[in-house]
Design goal:
Elements lengths: L2 H35 L2 H4 L5 H19 L3 H4 L6 H29 L1 E3 L4 H26 L6 H22 L8 H21 L3 H11 L7 E3 L8 H8 L3 H20 L1 H5 L3
Antiparallel strand pairs: 1-2
Length: 272
């Protein structure tokens, strides 16, 4: 081996850990920036559909600045064209199925909901997009550097997903805690969406489920059917997400997602 070879190899050995470290810091910075941007639409007035769109634009800009030209890989936005078509179909099926299921849930939970507006529904498309980038792509991608077990990552991130909702409502402007059953549904839904990301390495299918579910009920104003009293969002979460039918659907979806994850070992073990 010549001295030049040693110098070249020495440079490579010195630079490789530094490059990995730089990428790690960039990923952590992106994670923290997106986490800081996420709550703002929920902290202003209820008619805030436009705020979700603005936060999405800010997230895209921040990721491009922090992560460079490969930011779409980190954000989980690289998906094959065939998957893109399947994502649209999945979104439509989930939205239609959720609407039929929620009609039954509203009756049993004693809820009355107003008519949804297109603007509010549009906002929640972007709200789901923002959460998927944060919890699925960035958070799972960061943790995967240190934990290589896909099921363990899925369960841990789902716990954080449910905990973030608890903290938002308990210590936010409303100061209301979510029920155990509502938190269980959020945890199970989080596991299912985490598994979809780990199986396919993009947020397409997890977004389709998340957005398809959210747009058919979250933008609505809810009232108690017997008293006509306006309900706050945590109260609606408790009645809807705490419904036995919703908990059962979330549990079944979680089981199916683990089956899918087990059938795609190479995708689940791949690095982000």
């Amino acid at each position: 081996m010549s001295p030049d070879d040693k110098i070249i190899k020495g440079v490579k050995l010195d630079q490789e850990p530094r490059t990995q470290r730089d990428e790690g810091w960039a990923g952590l910075s992106a994670l923290l920036v997106v986490a800081a941007l996420m709550p703002w639409p929920l902290l202003i007035t209820r008619d805030n559909w436009w705020a979700f769109v603005l936060v999405s634009a800010a997230i895209v800009g921040a990721l491009r600045l922090l992560l460079g030209r490969h930011w779409t890989n980190y954000a989980g936005l690289k998906l094959p064209p065939t998957h893109a078509l399947l994502v649209v179909m999945t979104f439509a099926v989930v939205a239609a199925g959720s609407k039929m299921l929620l009609h039954h849930v509203y009756e049993t939970a004693g809820l009355r909901a107003n008519t949804l507006s297109i603007e509010e529904q549009t906002g929640f498309l972007f709200q789901a997009f923002n959460e998927e980038i944060l919890f699925r792509a960035l958070l799972i991608g960061f943790i995967f550097q240190y934990v290589r077990s896909a099921p363990l990552i899925s369960l841990g991130v789902a716990f954080l997903f449910a905990a973030s909702h608890f903290l938002l409502y308990r210590f936010g402007t409303l100061h209301m805690a979510l029920s155990i059953t509502a938190l269980a549904t959020l945890f199970l839904a989080g596991v299912a969406m985490n598994n979809l990301y780990l199986a396919f390495r993009h947020i397409g299918f997890s977004w389709a489920i998340h957005a398809g579910w959210n747009i058919v009920w979250l933008p609505a104003a809810f009232y108690d059917a017997s008293t006509n009293e306006r309900l706050y969002e945590p109260q609606v979460f408790d009645r809807v997400l705490g419904s036995p039918a919703i908990v059962a659907v979330a549990g079944a979806t979680t089981i199916l997602s683990f089956v899918l994850l087990a059938r795609r070992p190479q995708a689940s073990a791949a690095s982000p």
